[in-house]
Design the sequence.
């Protein structure tokens, strides 16, 4: 291996280590009652023509309703049945991928609020907030997660929502790379600080104006 390739290899290997060290420090502070949560506000997808994907014909996708709550809880007990029912009653939409009648992936969409507390805001009529995405571990690595996200973009556009937002934990490198591959961009870096429940505030650390 050449020196140039070796340097690149070592640089790539060092990235996960650099992200683990500060994450470990933040966990220690959390035990002392000092919670520091860095996160990225993300626009999905930022580039036009986000592409299309297809899966085996046995898979289907679309918005589901309250009748599917038992299957949602089977997939993942969080949120539980009562919270799922509350979310549906509040007008939130759930987009799912099914293998026959079995849900293998889901993602919730809020059309009213960016309901992540550290960055809460009301949404405009053309916006949607995407959250609580989950894929059955047995089905991961089969392109179901990107298929769900791309299909959801199309379903949301069909009801007049054209701007999609989410947040990503700053140290979740896997999630960041996943969204980047779909054409998403980071709009800003924020840090939420909570000290013993007595002080809670979100700070804007950086705005990526050049990427918007």
Sequence:
């Amino acid at each position: 291996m050449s020196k140039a390739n070796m340097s690149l290899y070592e640089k790539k290997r060092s990235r996960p280590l650099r992200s683990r060290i500060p994450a470990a420090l933040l966990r220690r502070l959390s035990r002392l009652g000092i919670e520091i949560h860095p996160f990225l506000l993300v626009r999905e997808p930022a580039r036009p023509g986000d592409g299309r994907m297809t899966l085996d014909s046995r898979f289907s996708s679309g918005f589901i309703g309250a009748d599917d709550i038992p299957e949602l809880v089977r997939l993942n007990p969080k949120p539980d049945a009562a919270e799922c029912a509350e979310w549906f009653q509040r007008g939130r939409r759930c987009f799912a991928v099914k293998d026959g009648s079995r849900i293998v992936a889901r993602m919730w969409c809020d059309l009213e609020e960016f309901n992540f507390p550290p960055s809460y805001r009301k949404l405009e009529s053309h916006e949607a907030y995407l959250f609580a995405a989950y894929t059955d571990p047995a089905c991961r690595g089969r392109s179901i997660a990107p298929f769900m996200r791309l299909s959801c973009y199309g379903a949301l556009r069909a009801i007049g929502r054209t701007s999609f937002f989410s947040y990503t934990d700053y140290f979740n490198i896997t999630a960041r790379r996943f969204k980047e591959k779909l054409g998403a961009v980071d709009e800003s870096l924020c840090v939420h600080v909570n000290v013993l429940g007595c002080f809670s505030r979100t700070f804007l650390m950086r705005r990526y104006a050049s990427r918007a």
In short: Helices lie at 3-31, 69-75, 81-89, 144-158, 173-181.
